[in-house]
Amino acid sequence: MIDTDSIIEVKNLQLSLANNIAIDGINHVFQLNKNIGIVGETGSGKSSLLRLIAGLEQADEGTVFFNNERVLGANEKLIPGHPKIAYLSQHYELKNNYRIEEILSYCNLIEDEKAFSIYKICEIDHLYKRWSDELSGGEKQRVALASLLTQKPKVLLLDEPFSNLDNIHKRKLLNLLRNIQSATGVSLITVSHDVQDILSWSDEIIILHNGKIIQSGTPDTLYHQPTNEYCAALLGTYQLLDTNHPLFFYITKMKTLDNEKSLLIRPGYFTFTERQNKSILGTIKHIEFFGNYYLIEVLIGNMSIMISSSSLSKAIGEEVLLTLSMDDFWFL
């Protein structure tokens, strides 16, 4: 049974923008005791869905419920939005010609002591006397985030929060969001075009394509058991091996396979070995270094596979023995 005091439910949501379908009949229950990530290619409807949930857009059809009560659309309120659902735009707009202390003061709905603790968590307590146009992008984002949190939301919707950040600041923002959750208990729903930004901390990932939900589930399930090739591609490097690939015949010696479908393989499914027994012989064709791992192209027969390894003692042109460490095979 779903706890109706901790959900957002959308029913048959439809939205067209500029004569194009942005959201196409979405039905989903968002359980707010989870970190939820929404991913998809550009134009898939991610931001539109988030704005509909926040009450900042008016659906052509369908309904959004928050804790079993309908969320009014943008055309139904003088000031659009829901008081318990905060929305952080990817542009995190701040009012011009205002000091930060003024912006924060106008937004604050909680006791000063609690507000100051949020400012400290967001690392903006040293910015009070600065003008809004003097801040860096990261500082503006944290000020906008703090101003939303002091309005006592139950849910925080983040629209592409990592899009303008380098890796160092992405990691800093992830740590910040964890600290915010620990201090406030706010639930997070985050939109990203890059699933790698949210893969490590999402409890549930929802994949959108052409305004529809294509697949949803845990990151582990979506990574290893994607519904289709679009979902497989969003979650990382992959290959589909048909019955003509030499590796397909190698695997059939160990397991009965479905010859009518293609076998999904990801680079991390392979390991190097020194044992001849049940190993695969290949030749290294190409090596790419990505800091904490290598992506290696290995030629097996006359076809290639991609494997990843945290270390590498072989060179291009050398023969290697591989084992396939994945127990459960997945077909598309």
What does this molecule look like?
This protein is an alpha+beta fold. Helices cover about 25% and strands about 30% of the residues. The chain has helices spanning about 45-55, 100-105, 110-120, 135-150, 165-185, 220-225, 230-235, 245-250, and strands at about 5-15, 20-30, 35-40, 60-65, 70, 85-90, 155-160, 185-190, 205-210, 210-215, 240, 265, 270-275, 280-290, 295-300, 305-310, 320-325, 330. The strands form four sheets. It has a six-stranded mixed β-sheet with strand order 6-7-8-3-9-10, sandwiched between helices. The chain has a five-stranded antiparallel β-sheet with strand order 13-17-14-15-16. A four-stranded antiparallel β-sheet has the order 2-1-4-5, with helices on one face. A hairpin with a 2-residue loop joins strand 9 (about 205-210) and strand 10. The longest helix has 18 residues, at about 165-185. The relative contact order is 0.12.
Q: Could you write a compact summary of the structure shown?
A:
The chain is of the alpha+beta class. It has helices at residues 46-54, 100-107, 112-121, 137-149, 167-184, 219-224, 229-234, 246-252; strands spanning 7-17, 20-31, 36-39, 61-66, 69-70, 85-88, 155-159, 187-192, 204-209, 212-217, 239-241, 263-265, 270-273, 280-289, 294-300, 303-309, 319-324, 330-331.
